[in-house]
Predict the structure.
Amino acid sequence: METLPPKSPKLKIILLGISLIILIIIFLLYPYINLLRQYGATPKLILSLFKNDTTALKNFDGRTNVLLLGISGGNHEGSTLSDSMNVISLDNNKKNGVLISLPRDIWSPSLKDKINSAYAYGEIKQEGGGILLSKSIVEEVIGLPIHYALVIDFSGFKQLIDEEGGIEIDVKNEFIDEKYPIEGKENDECGGKDPEFTCRYELVQFKKGLQHMDGDRALKYVRSRNSQGQEGTDIARARRQQQVLLAIKDKLLQFENLLNRDKLKALIEKSQSSIKTDLTLVELIVFGRSFSDLKNGSIKRPILSIADPIEGKPGFLINPPLYEFDNKWVLIPRNGETEFQEIHQYIQCWIEEEKCTITP
């Protein structure tokens, strides 16, 4: 009977080393995997996370679209109106992305109100209805299926940034906003003698240049809408929102942060009262990792431009007379309030082309 030759001491050492490495990896990852399983993670989703495989996410033709909504939260009137509305569209095959910012004042023919009221109306109907209705309304506007949505209030937004020590933002233009709303004073009567309710507002100013921002400062940067000049426009506000979203991507969504069990657990616990989403925890991490892996230069950032008749600038959206829309300042497609086809074509152009050449 032929006997196998004995293994060499060198081979034994190599095999022992490999075994030890595997045991160490299992030891280190077990608490993390166990945490994910506590929040409903399946083995398939956990494997997708480590392989950076996004096929476990809902998608259409390999593209996953997530709606991000920012609300103020709290108990004041309008606390569930969407203050910011953005869509992240990731191509899971080509590994590129499109970040679409939507002006909140777009009129929805289905709602008979602005699109930023969709979340509020949906939540009145039923808990969780805000996400469903918001996804449906945004689909009508941009012509893309919305697979998931994530809603974060101001408190959660600030915590998210403060948790990692703030973000770096390069302010392109200096601006001053003398009517920035003070959180918690939304219903202050200002003694009953001030028809302008000036006590509800504060002055905020941003100098041009690179600067470090904590959560509170970053929130003011993305929310400000009452400054003079170009920075007071919806387009400038949309660009600031995109800028901060990408800074959060660079700082907070790095894979080593997503793999840090203690950081992840703390983030989950702190965000449970501030974030609502139809993404499971692992779906959120898989999407976050895929998004964070993209270089900012590869993320396209279309803006739905607004016509300015005074300066003679064309736009996909126009501001119609107030009396036509219940005396509300709204935006509608330039071809009519129900005619979103041109906007659909514009968004699809950014999805399909390296550089879209469609202009208003």
About this structure: The chain has a mean pLDDT of 85. The longest helix spans residues 9-38. Residues 46-352 form a domain with the Aminopeptidase fold (CATH 3.40.630.190). Residues 44 and 150 are 22 Å apart (CA to CA).
